[in-house]
Amino acid sequence: MKKLIFVIMIGLFAVNTASAQAKKLGHINSQELVNLMPEAKAAQDSLKKVSQLLQGEFERKSEELKKLAEEFEANKGTMSPLIKESKINELNDKQNRLTEFERNANQEIAKVEQDLFKPISDKALKAIEDVAKEKGYQYIFDKARGGLLYAGATDDVLPLVKAKLGL
DSSP of 48-90, one letter per residue? Predict the structure, then answer.
């Protein structure tokens, strides 16, 4: 009888230990989640407006440069060397400014996108963390981008590894 109780106690201890060490894992497609959020549609519309505005300005400047280049090509045979050199410098300057505008526009679009979508991403991440805590998930992985979105409280093994390496 004592052996039976001892075996049952060992069994219960083993089951409790195994379940305490089990980690509940989950995954989510964060991009799909963000796309479902109403704020994402509004942010996408705002980003599109900014992008279209900058694209329109770029196209206007490109067309202006194209006309100047065509005008130069049509008239360069009748130009004095000094005027020709001046026009070439003007064309090069406009081309450089157009390239700079394009670079700055791309940076501005990226910044606007980050500014618009960061609060949305933060809200989604907060909801993921809340669900993870409420449902007992230890880790939540992102299927869209790969990587870890949520990690519950775990042990930092750095001191153990440092000791192993003698650091």
Answer: HHHHHHHHHHHHHHHHHHHHHHHHHHHHGGGS-HHHHHHHHHH
